[in-house]
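Subject: for your reference before the review

Hello V.,

The reviewers asked for a structural picture of the protein, and I figured it would be easier to keep everything in one thread rather than splitting it across files. Below is the amino acid sequence we used in the manuscript, unchanged from the supplementary table.
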Amino acid sequence: MRSSETSAESKATSPSAPPQADGSVAVTPVTSKRDLDAFIRLPWRLYRGNPNWVPPLLMLQRQLFDPRHNAFYLHADVQIFLARRDGVAVGRISAHIDHEHNRYHSERTGFFGFFESDDDPAVAALLLHTAEEWLRERRMDRIRGPMNFSANAEIGFLVVGFDSPPQILMPYTPPYYLDLVEQQGYVKIQDLFAWRWERQPVPPGAPARMVKELRSRPEITTRRGSMKHFDQEVRTILALYNDAWSANWGFVPATDAEAAQMARELKLIADPRLVPFVEVNGVPAGVALAVPNVNAAIHDLNGRLFPFGFLKLLWRLKFRRRQNGRLLLMGIKKEFRTRRYAGLAYLLCDEIYRGAMAYGFQWAEFSWTLEDNHLINSLITKVGARRYKTYRIYEKALT
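And here is what came back from the structure prediction:
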């Protein structure tokens, strides 16, 4: 794995003149539908012939950049930019400020995301410089990324795991992106891990004994998510998420509008067998949320739902079960992280195993986890998962 040894302080830069590049390269704000279409479609050229890249659905990409459809815009300032050489798109980037992030963490952090570029240091330098200047003008202290747009969506550049496609809401990027951003003074701030779990039961010994003992207690119950009351289930999931993840790096509580958007989107792909809850005396104490690998269902649609892509996707989601999926989240509410309830995380893992068996998963990706979350990484290892992908977040001082 590549590493960044230089400190953020030694890499910090002051406002400077734009980097020099071929005079025919220009970076401009996306201001029209034509610009947005070029911005969205650029990856089709960059990843042409790469069997591990999954073309995103064009309709969903357009909604992502539409404030009428994306609740992120309610608490963020966003500008997207496109780089062209002789009229041909050669790179893209977003600069954005998540006011909820800065309020929660008491920071003045700006972000970049949706970075794509030819393997050309000059193009990358112009893109990053443009995002940096946009954030400097708004008095941000640092720039961090890539985040598309937040930690609840695709984030990071791929560092390890280029030989397989990504799961839903996980990125796929070429290895040269790491060099392009590091050449501009960006340093690693966090690595994220993705784990491959081969549908194994909770291992014998202490974990299995804890699960058996917890199942014997009358106050502890498990249940599956209810599609009939799906909106309420999503609110319960987010309440647990906002509690269990509140101390994690990069965490930002979900807003009511984001909860409503999440409910609409999850309802299309969720399966109750893959959404186990653990309750103590009827109070939700923990949850896990897994989804089928939708990327496998859209891989050959080339981003298009019409005229026939929608029917193919509908048939695949309804009648063809995915052989793998992604565990999006798993957590225990803080008040139940006590000696008395030690092992609740293993109980959730056992429920995940039962749901995976019922659905027919052969394996699942657990992602993502923070590199310094040693407790959860140790638990994931103990239930038989192995780390198979790594993603990296970068940062650069703007002062």
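For the response letter, the relevant points are probably these. The two ends are 30 Å apart (CA to CA). Residues 1-15 have pLDDT under 50 and may be disordered.

Happy to draft the paragraph if you're swamped.

O.
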